[in-house]
Write a structure and sequence with these properties.
alpha+beta, N-terminal domain of TfIIb, GMP Synthetase, Chain A, domain 3, 2 domains, 6 strands, 33% helix, KH_dom-like_a/b, OsmC family protein
């Protein structure tokens, strides 16, 4: 896996993944940015949410759960120092579908967190306290 990050100006950077996708990162005006893109630490949080959601959806589909939507809301705390790494992150999974089994949804979240999600495992190894919760919404497909 590879990526390239190129400085544009100020504190704006253009990141390009090895698969050819690009994203703009920028800082807040009080840090010399123009607020034209996500912050680098937000990218880490988004990556965690994407990685975990990828796993949860895959596990639920394999267990034949009729999922119609999955959203994860992430709340993070950072150290009040420089550097200011994440100290705690809570992932709240909101999963919608018809006849979803709560135990299957919970199991999918746990498997992602403990076995499959590389981002979760990496952040926990770095000392970040991760926690998870699940909300299930019954829908008609």
């Amino acid at each position: 896996m590879q990526a390239t990050v190129k400085w544009v100006d100020g504190v704006m950077f253009l990141g390009e993944s090895g698969s050819g996708h690009a994203v703009v990162m920028d800082g807040a005006p009080d840090h010399g940015g123009r607020n034209m893109g996500v912050r680098p630490m937000e990218m880490i949080l988004l990556g965690l949410g994407g990685c975990a959601s990828f796993d949860v959806i895959g596990i639920l589909k394999k267990s034949r759960q009729a999922v119609s939507d999955c959203r994860v809301e992430l709340q993070a705390e950072r150290a009040d120092a420089v550097p200011s790494p994440f100290t705690k992150i809570h992932l709240k999974f909101i999963v919608s579908g018809k006849g979803l089994k709560a135990n299957q949804v919970q199991k999918a979240v746990e498997l992602s967190a403990t076995k499959y999600c590389s981002a979760s495992i990496m952040l926990e190894a770095a000392g970040v306290q991760l926690s998870h919760s699940v909300e299930i919404i019954e829908t008609e497909l």
